[in-house]
Structure formats: C-alpha cells, structure tokens
Amino acid sequence: xxxxxxxxxxxxxxxAYPLASWVIGGQIDSxxxxxxxxxxxNVYVDIIExxxxxxxxxxxxVITLALKPExxxxxxxxxxxxxxxxxxxxxxxxxxxxxxxxxxxxxxLGLASAHSVLELDNPLVQKLYAGKSPLTVDxxxxxxxxxxxxxxxxxxxxxxDGTAHLAWGEMVIDMDFNRDFSVINAQGRWPxxxxxxxxxxxxxxxxxxxxxAQQQRLSAEVSDIYTGPVxxxxxxxxxxxxxxxxxxxRVENMRFNSDVxxxxxxxxxxxGYAADSIEVGEDHYRNAHFALALRHLEPGALAKINxxxxxxxxxxxxxxxxxxxxxxxxxxxxxxxxPEIAIERMGLSTAQGxxxxxxxxxxxxxxxxxxxxxxENPLLLMSLATVLEADAQMALPEVLLKENLTPEQxxxxxxxxxxxxxxxxxxxxxxxxxxxxxxVTINGKPLDPALMGxx
Length: 455
Description:
Mean pLDDT: 83
Low-confidence stretches: 1-14, 77-85
Number of strands: 22
Helix content: 10-25%
Radius of gyration: 29 Å
Structural class: alpha+beta
C-alpha cells in the first residue's frame, strides 16, 4: 500500500506538468490568434499563411507575411530596366519556437518564452547581413499575460561592388508590455550607422543613437492613439558630398521628442527638436530648437483621420478630391472643437546674434457647417475668417537681416521701423503680428496697406 501511495506521489507531478504545459500551450495559441487578427488590415504587411506544430512542451510556429507593394519597392535592388509596377511583393517568414509554461524552457516560472527569427529571402538583405537573420526577438510572458521582449538586429559591414560601403553597429530594443498591450515601455540603442562611397568622398554617419518611450493606449474605443512621451537622441550627425557646391554638415547632440497627453476628453500633442551645435561649411550655429503644439484635438476624429490617411494612395502625382472626401467629416469634427496649433518656440544662435520666432493659430467655436459642401464651394469657408485668431512674433539681428535684403527692401525696412511696425532695440529687430475678427495689427498698430506696398 505504501508503495502504491509513493508511486502516486511520484507519478502525479509527472502527469500534471505535461498536462499543464499542454493547456498553457493552448492559451498561448489563443493569445497569438487574437494578435494576428488585430494585425489583419494594417497598412504595412499582409499575413499570407500561419502554420503551427504544437507539442506538449513547445510549439513551432511559421508565419509568412508580405510587405505591401509600396514598401516592397524599398527592398528591391536598383534595376533600371524594370518598371516600378513589376516589383513583386517582398515576402518574409517569422519562425518561432514557443516554450510553454509553467516552467518555459525550464528557466523560470511563466506562461511562455519564445525565440523568433526573421527570415527574409531578399538579395539586398542577404548581401547586407551576410546570410544572418536581420532580426531576432526573444519574448517572455508571465502568468498575468504581461511580458518583456528583446529585439536585436546584428551589426553590418558590407561593400557593394566597389561603389559603396555600408556599416552599422548592433541595434537592441528592450520592451515590456502588459496583458493587452495597452501599456508599452521601450528603450533602444544603436551605436553608429555609416554609409559612404568607396572613395570616401560622399558620406553620411550617425553616432550614439538612443530611444525611450512610455506609451499607454488612450482607451478601448480609441485603440489607435497612445499617450505618453517618446524621446530620441543622436550624439552626432555628419554629411559630406562630392559636390563642391554642397558644404559639409555636422550636427551635435540632437534631441527629438514628442508627447501625447489626454486632457478633459481631448488630446494635446507636443513635438520638437533641439541641437547644441550645427556647422554648415564655415557657418556655425548654436542652440537650435523648435517646438510645435497641437491642442484640443478630438481623439475619435484624430484616430479616423490617421486611419484613412494610412490607406491613401500617395504614389500619384496629386491627390484628388475622391481620396480626400473620407477625411472631410472627421476634419469637420476637429475644426468644430476649437483646435489650436502653435509654434511655441523656434530659433538658433548665430555669430551676429539670436533668431527667435513663435506663432499661434486658434479656431474657437468654429461652425464650418457641412465641410463636404464647403470643399465643393470654397467660398463657404470664408466664414472661418470671422472666428480665426492668429499671432506671430519674431526677433533677429539687424545686421543679419540686412545682409539678405536688396537696397529697396532696406529702405522699406527703415519706413516700417519709423511707423512702429518693426522695433529696433540695440540692433535687435522684433515685430508681432496679430489677426482677429478679420483685422490685422502689427505691434498693436492697424495695418497700413499703403506702407506695406499693398496699394
């Protein structure tokens, strides 16, 4: 009897663990199926086929995808004899081994761990990566459904038939996410990227790139919009051309940032860049900066515009009204919710002094009526001028401005200073324009059309 009891004690976990692993494998497969269902209809790739071979402790998955035609063209080697429409869609395979929990890979407790490898049968990619996979992803999912990913792309050092040399370091992105991917945090690093001609006369080089992002889905109803900051830094950018008329360029300590914030049912978008130093040939500029703000945007309309725009055909020479028409209704909703756009600050420091500028445009309580009808009769949009409000401010060194003016324009500048339209304080010129209720003022003075050469 004791032997039977002991046998049951030993046998129970031996039976229970494979059963648990099999059940968890089914749960993981269901999660993947939901993710692939969400992927359908995106603008970048089509899912061609998904195959799985499910075992007790692991699952082998092979999914075949194809880039949309407009993106496929970017990965085709140049062929002057081929027509653009002859480019075949680029297909690629993601091959994954998924180890089931409760002890995936027998390393730590969780639902699953997976190792995924991108296989891309493309001559350009094969040449660049010397037959290695251009991308691998290692994923771990805990029992809550949250997890972490490490995305890695290997270093490249490739010569193209004596015409060009491409090289860059290993790129790594670490990411963590919650169960439904409504919260995503990521950070990445890329040590350098260099593209140059074989003789070195033409060159583009970027060094020490880094990225950080903290993203949170706005809501289940507006799943396309994520709030939170994204920051990108670049230590140095250098460009050199063999064309003597194109001066060399060097930029140091560039910072790009964006932040989407939810506020009382609306969305505010802040974006900008800054650079400590910009050298263009012999010219040297410092403290370059630009900050743009879009405020009071209705999120549902914004998501609809983004969705429609992403499916628009941009290959044509012009965009016709048939393509634009679906955008008009969500655009009308945006305009009727008092949106604001502002260049909060823009400027740089030169050897002659500082250049500064800012501008704001507001559309408070606009009633645009039926925008589809207004698009067919643009005169109906003139009513927006009665509610449009705009301001702009600018300051720059007098000597810098005069270097770029004709003698006639310098005389006109003197007249504007005399009239108070331009202020001159110790060689620094400034002016402020305002538009409200159909009227224009400059530095608080009504616009004189005769002085401005409008009559």
